[in-house]
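Hi R.,

Here's the chain you asked about this morning:
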Amino acid sequence: MLGSVAVIITALVVWLSDWEDKDILDPILSLIIVCIIVTSTVPLVKESILILMETMPSHIDIEDIEHEVESLDHVENVHHFHCWKLVCIKRNISVVSHVRVDKSPIMTITLIYKYYMSTNA
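And the predicted structure, written out as tokens:
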């Protein structure tokens, strides 16, 4: 949209103006449009690369979550705790861990799920 507006303005200036340097208007506006496109695209590309590289979300402290899960009833040990983003949405992550429980694995899984849903991770 912005590119179309710039093209129309440039065409009108070149067509209707007697300005001596009107021929440089098109490249100048093109460079301005390129700068706007690049500055709006860089954050998107950066976020996409972080998702494709399966990096851990920056807002999550993995050690805190691991200790909180270990403090739940019936959880003996948590190890190999991994967390990564799936999409740009803040709450959509994937967590994989090995949890050793002393009894009632279904109840423990339910407790871990409730803990995760209650956090802002």
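The mean pLDDT is 78.

Let me know if you need anything else.
M.
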